[in-house]
What does this fold into?
Amino acid sequence: MTIRFAERLNRLGTESAFEVLAHARLLEAEGRSIVHLEIGEPDFATPDNIIDAAVRAMRDGATHYTAASGIREVREKTAAYVTRHTGVPTQFENIVLTPGSKNLLLFALLALVEEEDEVIVPDPGYPIYRSLVEFIGAKAVSLPLRQENDFRADVDELARLITPRTRMLVVNSPQNPTGGILTRADCEAIARLAIDHDLIVLSDEIYNRLSYDGAHVSLYGIDGMAERTIYMDGLSKAWAMCGWRLGFGAMPVAIARKMDTLMINSSSCAAAFTQWAAVEAFDSPESDAAVDRMVAEFSHRRDRIVELLNEIPGFKCRRPAGAFYVFPDISATGFGDRELASSLLDEVGVAVLPGRSFGPVGEGHIRLSYAASIANLEEAARRIAQYVGAAVPG
Ligand SMILES: Cc1ncc(COP(=O)(O)O)c(C=O)c1O
It folds into this structure.
């Protein structure tokens, strides 16, 4: 039988990190040595106290379905955490817990955006934004983020992209793939535009704890924004819990109710013991200390990788303020970004991602995740320098 797929699948994109990881694993299975700088996942173990809390919860019976948006007490603790980190008075009714934060994005689009509506997404940006916007039949409009502006949005350019069809604006700070961070002035200017044009904003702040100079400003926390913003966060990055699958969103109650119905129709609920683990992540001083240790280590690695990359002929790398990615401009090497990323993997065993896979404006860059040991970063830089150095005079 010829299987006929629904037309909408043609509009579904992917995340190249998972594809490059799969290819890199195949090479490893053939005995090749690979340095992994492709995947956006902390290399640290989840803090022990969080694991212990989840095991305790399981032993105490947290192995059943929960309410679709999450256990009430966990939602209350999540609301208190969001209030502490954004300044927005948040109640449990504003909170939805999902198995990974990606669901919040999908649900927001399904609930609020019609086919043919326009959604402004960062470019380069997390590829799932564009993929899901197009999947639901809406139009993704690129907001360019450029290296010369430290990958911050140009607010005048944003203003020019807004049309009567613009329904939603997706903002991500600290940012994947560039590590860029919006300033308070940027957030205030974006908020003014969103309010003036009556836009819904999805503020993806999943890297908010990973900001190295204390610079993170919550767009959700800017005056007038909480009533039109879906705040997107999760356990994956700050607590090294990618595999636990817990996202948490804060939003107006009317939107939270629709997300509850979408949860009932999809996952039913996030895993009960993972929800209890979140309480330990939010409320224990041990967890805060673990996050602080990881952030200090990321900051150290960031400095080292930026230094090493800038020594490679043809590489220009800014020192990003957040997340755990660098996004150097490699255009002066003479290689295209796709060509360089694939040669680095095949020829010298360094897995990185081409900038183009994050949007057209990412062309000429590569993304490296520095969620890897200093030894691995140094080895990767040595191999890249060797490969590029052979082709580019210093
Ligand atoms: C910007 C951004 N948002 C959201 C996510 C999704 O995280 P999760 O689904 O693990 O919560 C990621 C993961 O890489 C990301 O980089």
